[in-house]
Amino acid sequence: MKLAVVGHVEWVEFVRVDHVPEAGEIVSALETWEEAAGGGAVAAVQLANLHGSALLFTSLGADEHGQRAREQLTAHGVTVHAGAASEPQRRAFTYVDGDGERTITVLGRKLVPSGHDGALPWEELARCDAAFFVSGDIAALRAARRARVLVATARELATLRRAGVEVDVLVGSGGDASERFDLGTLEPPPGAVVTTAGPLGGWVRPGGPFRAAPPPGPVEDAYGCGDCFAAGLTYALADGRSMEEALALAARCGAAVLTGRGAYAGQLTAASV
User: Of 31, 130, 174, 256, which is least surrounded by CB within 10 A?
Assistant: First the structure.
């Protein structure tokens, strides 16, 4: 198979604390680390961990963080096709509290890939078995549609509405206000809609409810659960599995990443599938 992600990257500084500070409060960090993450990066590495390789169409900043992001993602088995932004790499600051919940502050404009960027090999998407659209402009979304299967996040509803392309599966979180939508506002409508609900599982239309998977160990860090879920779903559909089977694998991917520090340590791998 050939798998791709179209989306953004952030350079993320993680800080583990007992609790997120309230206004005026000072808390001490128990642990800190930093790595390339963000929706596009997390999904691409999850696909690479499941399949052995993945393509990422993105945009990276013209600074040290952008270069380090490229190096880290390449080391994870991702082939990075990145447009060169004329501004610094977008960064993020993420608290991870004692329950493993993450609280994120982003710094800077989201750097998204443009389908009009002739320096990127957009024609590769036509040879992909599946693509996951995380972010990008209308031209990038239309290029992603050339893949045999297109999965997209509900975070980018405005782009989906303007592009007017048919998405095979639209994935969103029922607990995130930015990912809720009226199905009638998308034309053409997606082939299927998956709404996640954390430990409660979720709902697929058409279909019905599906169960969450139990974490395979103690919960460490909730960062990246949704993106790993969507990547697992994308992989399974590209592999020709039924929606029921795809949701089961997606749920396992979302649960597994809970057990590792940061975006990648707990990700499900091919050896575990």
Answer: 31
